[in-house]
Amino acid sequence: MKRNLVLSILFLLAGFSFHPVHAAKWRAGHVIVIALDGWGGYSVSKAKIPNIRSVMESGCYTMKDRSVLPSSSAVNWASMFMGVGPELHGYTTWGSRTPEIPSRTVNGNGIFPTIFSVMREQNPKAVTACFYEWEGIKYMVDTLSLSRHAICPDYEKNTTGLCEMAVKYIKEEKPHLFAVCFDQLDHVGHAAGHDTPGYYEKLEELDVQVDRILQAVREAGIGDDTIIIMTADHGGIRKGHGGITLQEMEIPFIIAGKGIRKGGEFRESMMQFDTAATLAYIFKLKQPQAWIGRPAKHVFNR
Fold it and tell me: Which residues, given as ranges, of the chain have pLDDT below 50?
């Protein structure tokens, strides 16, 4: 009988040891990052985006989160996920696929530590994913550390394709950390120009897709345990970006959901690489020593 009791205790302990994540310790069990390439902070006050505005009203936000320089895509996607600027991760141009400057440090996969690799190291069974439209993003996220990554094919014609992929994945897998990266707004910025009717029309289309993703979170039954973050890689001016104007550098950072204050606009400064640090803070991850990002602790309920 004593032997059976010991075996039962060992079996119970084994069950706990195979629990996929340590969600009870996290500030939220799920985080969905919705990022819009080329989304300038200047545009939010001018756009008809009721769904995004609803997220803003239920949490905290700033329109003055700053990109790193140059205010280009690969450089800033890398900084968003790697917690540092180009001086340390080494990606320095618009279309970087590998670092032009050797990364200051690399993880076991040979890439500068990303939020996804840190999550994988410290919570190996967590479900993490990144879906995207611009192929270049896959070089910045450490795909070997992800549970899944996927590109939306022919997204310029299939403009709701990424949203549909994300909705399906959320409902089926209930990911713990999921980044959904849209590229369409940047395309319009380059073609029609920033701060133009075409730009706002596309932003309003994406607002509807944001609502579909939020609805999927609720339908998946994880709404009460989820944090939503909305942000961008850079803004733009006229038909380009990469320079040093605030219109190119200032981007939105919006956060709402479990444990987030309904605090409205905040004045504390943020940089692109603070997004990774904030994600690490939510999941109670130990930041790599090389990271310089600071978590936005002021947006959380004390």
Answer: 1-2, 5-19
Residue 227 inside a domain? The answer is yes
Q: Report yes or no: 128 and 178 within 8 Å, Cβ to Cβ.
A: yes
In a domain, 154, yes or no: yes
pLDDT at res. 23? 57
Nearest one of 184, 227, 158 to 36, comparing CA atoms: 184
Q: How many domains does the chain have?
A: 1
DSSP the chain: -HHHHHHHHHHHHHHHHT-S--GGGSS-SEEEEEEETT--GGGGGGS--HHHHHHHHHSEEEEEEE--SS--HHHHHHHHHHSS-HHHH---STT-SS-SS--S---TTSS---HHHHHHHHSTT--EEEEESSGGGGGTTTGGG-SEEEE-TTTTTSTTHHHHHHHHHHHHH--SEEEEEE-HHHHHHHHT-TTSHHHHHHHHHHHHHHHHHHHHHHHTT-GGGEEEEEE-S---BTTB--SS-HHHHEEEEEEEETTB---EE--S--BTTHHHHHHHHHTTPPPPTT------GGGB--
CATH of the domain at 147: 3.40.720.10
Q: Let me know if residue 12 belongs to a domain.
A: no
Is 17 a member of any domain?
Answer: no
pLDDT in tens, 70-84: 999 999 999 999 999
| Domain of 269, in residue numbers | 28-299
